[in-house]
Amino acid sequence: MTTRISVSLSWDDAFDADETRSMMRQIGADQIACLQGPGPALTDVLNTIDDDRIELVGWSSHDGPVPLSWLRRVAGQWVRHHEDVPVVVHAGVVRPGQELSDEWRTVTGEEAPLHSPAWQDFPTFRHHLFTCRGPRCNAAGAADLHARLQEKLAQSHALDTDVLITVTGCMYPCNSAPLIVVWPDGRCIQLTEDNLDRVAAELAGPSRQ
Ligand code: FES
Predict the structure, then answer these.
(1) 49 alpha carbon to ligand 1 midpoint, in Å?
(2) Ligand 1 atom closest to 178 (CA)
(3) Under CATH, which number does the domain 2-116 receive?
(4) Cβ(158)–Cβ(208) under 8 Å?
(5) Deepest in the core among 18, 19, 119, 173, taking most CB within 10 A?
């Protein structure tokens, strides 16, 4: 028996329940997993499978680059401890409406590891931004506002260099929903349509504008 797993590749995809169900049907998958973000982690799902062959299909609903190579690396880490189970990865990222190809790559266990000396320390970002996706913030439009803030920071080339974003659950000052908190100063900001551009510009810094 073969188990086919549809694996969401990006953080945003993992948050999208409708797209996750739709892609599972499109891919003809038996199970779902996510490479990153909320939902069942790929390694945890692999640990539950007792079949002769496992097929992994990475998908994303976004046009931009997504970390398909990390799907192979995570699978490779698992295969190193489960050498008796053949695992293959679909050769390309599957997007909505796209059929699977006949190209599959075998996961050998020789894939690059999940550790590197380069990932030992925090990068030297100026702001660590916590974006709340708790119930009150979600109800106040956090998903859309946070996505647009992230997009603006990416356009300013500040994302992950000057500003590191971490998505959180409730941080408790819910009356300020939708909330973001900027560290190291610990400032709470209620993100709105009116201040979105100003907050993005401030976080990116004058050198980025
Ligand atoms: S739900 Fe966001 S601070 Fe409570």
Answers:
(1) 37
(2) 2
(3) 3.40.50
(4) yes
(5) 19
